[in-house]
Design goal:
By secondary structure, this protein is mostly helical. It has a single domain, classed as Serine Threonine Protein Phosphatase 5, Tetratricopeptide repeat (Alpha Horseshoe). It has 5 helices and no strands. Helix 1 packs parallel to helix 3. The longest helix is centred in the C-terminal third of the chain and has 19 residues.
């Protein structure tokens, strides 16, 4: 998704606030796309707000459980553990 690429570019460019904005747009367009949530989590940590990254993770986890009866991917779980470390 182009918004994921743009969010990643903003993150790499040291503009986490713009990365958050773009990742939020991507999540709004496809709430089940985990890469968008992952970028949102990384961006919140980059801006110095890890508690918001945890909220994003738990929101995704609840959504996937309620709507699809599944857990986040191993990649999302590993990111969550990494961000908590």
């Amino acid at each position: 998704m182009p918004l994921d690429c743009l969010s990643q570019m903003w993150l790499l460019a040291g503009e986490p606030a713009l990365a958050i904005e773009t990742a939020m747009e991507a999540v709004a367009l496809d709430q089940f796309r985990e890469i968008s949530h992952q970028l949102l989590m990384r961006s919140h940590v980059a801006i110095g707000n890890p508690s918001e990254a945890v909220i994003v993770y738990h929101s995704l986890r609840g959504l996937l459980a309620d709507e699809l009866g599944t857990d986040p991917s191993n990649e999302t779980e590993a990111l969550y553990v990494e961000l908590l470390g």
